[in-house]
Design goal:
This protein has 611 residues and is of the alpha/beta class. Helices cover 36% and strands 24% of the residues. An eight-stranded antiparallel beta sheet has the order 3-2-4-1-10-9-11-15, with helices on one face. The protein has a seven-stranded antiparallel beta sheet with strand order 5-6-7-8-12-13-14, with helices on one face. A five-stranded parallel beta sheet has the order 19-18-20-21-22, sandwiched between helices.
Length: 611
C-alpha cells in the first residue's frame, strides 16, 4: 500500500527519493509525488500513475533541486487516484507539506472543524485534513514540533506522516501511530521510509519509530521526542538484509526469484531451531506448564497467511491433539471468539503490519488470550505487540504474491506443532524423530521440485487459456488448494475457486463442463482413493484434470488425470511444503503466458495496512 521516503542531507534529495519510491513500488500504488524545501520555499510534483511518470516530470530530479525532501506512493482509500489526491499535500497557505500512510478515522469531523476556521481543501483525502490541522496549530503556536504534537493528539486512526515546513527548511519531521516508519542514519544524510527496502542502499543503521514519537531529521543527525516533546535516547539497530535480496538478481520477476529462494529460506528458518534431533524453541520463553494447559488454538491471518493457518490447524489437531481453528483476521475480530487464559492465538503475517491481523491480535489480547506471532519483518507491529514472536527468516519478500513467506511460515508451524506435541506427550518418540529427520531433508527435496520447473511451464502452456480453474483437495491438500487457487487468481486474473473435494457434489460441480480445468491436489496418501473418486467425477463431466501428487501416489492418480506433477514423498505433516511449489510455479507461468504484470497485480498491495 502507500509508501513514504524522506531525505535530509548533503546530496540532492529527489534522485534519492525516486530511487526509494521505485523500491517501494512492490507495495502497490496508483499515484506518486515528491516535495522539496529549498531557499525557504516548498515545491511539489505529483501525478496519477507510476513512479517512472513522476521521474519524467521532474527529469530525474534535475528540475527539482533541494537537499531536504519527501516522496510518496499512494494507494487510494479516500478519493480516487487522481493528480489532486496524490501526495504530498500542502496546507492552506502553502507553508507545510505532508505525506501520509494510513487512515485518519475522524477526518470528516476534523475537516468540518477546519472549514469552520476558514481552511480550504483541494482534494478528497484525509491527508489534507492532517496537513491543515498541523497548519492550524502552527498558526497558533509558531512552533512546528508543538503543532505536530497537538495535531497528533487530535487525530484518530492510523497514520505515518512525513512533514516539511517552509520556515524550517533544514528539517524533515516524522510521526506515527500504528503505521510503520523507519529512520535511517547515514553519513552526511539521514533517511525516512515506511519500509526498510527504500533505504537499505544508503544505510543499514535504522531505528523503528514508536507510536507517538516525533522525529526530526537533518543533515547533522536524527532526534526523537516523545509526545510531550522531551528528547528520548534511541539505539540504532543494524539491518542484516542483503541489498541483492531487494533486487531481481537476473530473474525476470521477483516472484520467480522468491520461489527459487525457498529451499534456502526454509533452511534459514529451521536450522537455528533444530539441534541434535530436537526442536528448540527456547527463544520463545513459553513455559512448559502453559503449553500443557493450552485448551484451544486460533490461528489468525489474511490471504496466504490464513492458508498457512488452515494447514497448521490440521497438524496441531492431529499431532499435538489441541483443538485448533484457522480464522481470517477480519472475521475473528467481530465473531465474538470464546477466549480464556488457556486460549492461544497464533497470528501469522509476513509484513507484521496487516491492519486486520493487528486488530485481531489486539482483540485477542483484550479478551485475555496469549498471542504468539509468526512474522517476517523484524520489529513490526505484530512482532512487538504479541506475547511471543517467532521470526521467519525469509528476507524481504517483494512480489505482492506471497511465496517464500508461505513456506517459511509453514516451517515455523511444523516446529511449533512438534514442540507442543512433545511437551504435551502427544506424539510418540518414533514419530517425532521421523518428522525432525524429514525436516532436515526438506531443503534438498524443495530444490529437486524447483529443478523441474520446465514441466510446470509446459503444462501452463497447455492450460493458460482456461478462464475457470477449480482446485480440489482433502485435509492438508484442501489447505494447499486454497493457496494454489489464490496464487493463480491474484496474478493471472483467471477465475479460480478452491473446494474441499468432498464438497464439490454439494453444489460447485454444477459449474464443471467440457474443458473446465480441475487441479486435483492429491499428496495426502491416507485420502488418495477418495480424491481419485472426486477426480473421476469431474472427468466424467468433461473436466480436464491436472493432478499434483507424490511419487508414491502417481500410480494411483494417473488413470484419472490428463496431466500429473509429482513431488518427492515426505512425512504427512510436511507435505504442504512440497505440494505448494508446483502450484506457485503453475500460477507464475500461467500469468507469464497471459502477459500479466506478475509482481504488481492490479488492485493489490503488498502490505494491507487499512481494514
Ligand atoms: O503481510 P501479511 O502476511 O499479513 O499479508 C497477508 C495477505 O495480505 C497476503 O498473504 C496476501 O494474501 C498475498 N497477496 C498473497 O499472495
Amino acid at each position: 500500500m502507500c509508501g513514504i521516503v524522506g531525505y535530509a542531507g548533503r546530496e540532492e534529495s529527489v534522485p534519492i527519493l525516486l530511487d526509494g519510491l521505485y523500491k517501494l513500488e512492490y507495495r502497490g500504488y496508483d499515484s506518486a509525488g515528491v516535495a522539496v524545501c529549498r531557499d525557504g520555499k516548498l515545491r511539489l510534483a505529483k501525478t496519477k500513475g507510476y513512479v517512472r511518470e513522476l521521474d519524467r516530470i521532474v527529469d530525474g530530479g534535475r528540475l527539482m533541486p533541494g537537499s531536504v525532501g519527501l516522496g510518496h506512493t499512494r494507494w487510494a482509500t479516500h478519493g480516487r487516484p487522481t493528480d489532486s489526491n496524490a501526495h504530498p499535500h500542502i496546507s492552506h497557505g502553502g507553508k507545510i507539506a505532508v505525506v501520509h500512510n494510513g487512515i485518519i478515522e475522524n477526518y470528516a469531523k476534523l475537516r468540518e472543524y477546519l472549514t469552520g476556521k476558514g481552511f480550504e481543501f483541494n482534494s478528497e483525502t484525509d491527508t489534507e485534513v492532517a496537513v491543515n490541522l498541523i497548519q492550524h496549530y502552527y498558526n497558533k503556536t509558531g512552533e512546528i514540533l508543538r503543532a505536530v504534537a497537538s495535531a497528533a493528539r487530535r487525530m484518530e486512526g492510523s497514520y505515518a506522516l512525513g512533514i516539511l515546513c517552509e520556515d524550517c527548511p533544514d528539517m524533515l519531521i516524522a510521526t506515527r501511530r500504528e503505521s510503520p516508519l523507519v529512520l535511517g542514519a547515514g553519513d552526511g544524510g539521514n533517511y525516512l521510509a515506511s519500509d526498510v527496502a527504500a533505504l537499505i542502499k544508503y544505510t543499514r543503521d535504522v531505528y523503528n519509530l514508536e507510536d507517538g514519537e516525533i522525529a526530526v531529521l537533518s543533515e547533522s543527525g536524527v532526534k526523537v521526542y516523545n509526545g510531550d516533546l522531551e528528547e528520548t535516547a534511541i539505539t540504532l539497530e543494524r539491518v542484516d538484509w542483503n541489498i541483492s535480496a531487494a533486487e531481481k538478481g537476473g530473474y525476470e520477476h521477483f516472484m520467480i526469484k522468491e520461489i527459487m529462494e525457498q529451499p534456502e529460506a526454509f533452511r534459514k528458518t529451521v536450522s537455528p531451531r533444530v539441534a541434535e534431533g530436537r526442536v528448540t524453541l527456547d527463544e520463545l520463553g513459553v513455559s512448559d506448564e502453559y503449553i500443557r494447559n493450552v485448551s484451544k488454538i486460533y490461528i489468525v491471518g489474511c490471504g496466504t497467511a490464513h492458508y498457512v493457518g488452515v494447514a497448521a490447524k490440521y497438524n496441531f489437531e492431529k499431532y499435538a491433539k489441541i483443538p485448533a481453528e484457522a480464522i481470517v483476521a477480519s472475521e475473528f475480530r467481530y465473531s465474538g471468539p470464546i477466549i480464556d487464559e488457556r486460549t492461544l492465538v497464533i497470528c501469522v503475517s509476513q509484513s507484521g503490519a496487516t491492519a486486520d491481523t493487528i486488530a485481531a491480535m489486539r482483540e485477542a489480547k483484550r479478551r485475555g488470550a496469549r498471542v504468539l506471532s509468526i512474522v517476517n519483518v523484524v520489529g513490526s507491529v505484530i512482532a512487538r505487540e504479541s506475547d511471543w514472536a517467532l521470526y521467519t527468516w525469509a528476507g524481504p519478500e517483494i512480489c505482492v504474491a506471497s511465496t517464500k513467506a508461505y513456506s517459511t511460515q509453514l516451517a515455523v508451524t511444523y516446529l511449533l506443532t512438534l514442540y507442543f506435541a512433545d511437551k504435551r506427550g502427544a506424539i510418540s518418540p518414533e514419530e517425532y524423530e521421523s518428522v525432525v529427520r524429514e525436516i532436515s531433508l526438506l531443503p534438498g527435496k524443495l530444490a529437486r521440485v524447483l529443478k523441474d520447473k520446465e514441466t510446470v511451464q509446459y503444462l501452463a502452456s497447455i492450460y493458460f487459456n482456461n478462464e475457470d480453474v477449480f482446485f480440489i483437495g482433502r485435509n492438508i491438500d484442501y489447505a494447499l488448494s486454497l493457496e494454489g487457487s489464490l496464487k493463480l487468481k491474484e496474478i493471472s486474473y483467471i477465475h479460480s475457486d478452491a473446494y474441499a473435494a468432498g464438497e464439490l457434489k454439494h453444489g460447485a460441480i454444477a459449474l464443471v463442463s467440457d474443458g473446465t480445468l480441475v487441479v486435483t491436489v492429491a499428496t495426502y496418501g491416507a485420502l488418495l482413493e477418495k480424491i481419485v473418486s472426486n477426480a473421476e467425477e469431474v472427468r466424467s463431466r468433461g473436466a480436464r484434470v491436472l493432478s499434483v501428487t507424490t511419487q508414491s501416489g502417481a500410480g494411483r492418480v494417473e488413470h484419472v488425470s490428463d496431466s500429473v506433477i509429482t513431488v518427492p514423498d515426505t512425512h504427512d505433516m510436511l507435505l504442504p511444503s512440497l505440494g505448494v511449489l508446483p502450484l506457485q510455479m503453475f500460477a507464475y507461468y500461467m500469468a507469464l503466458m497471459r502477459g500479466c504484470p506478475i509482481d504488481k497485480p492490479r488492485n493489490l498491495a503488498k502490505s494491507v495496512t487499512v481494514e
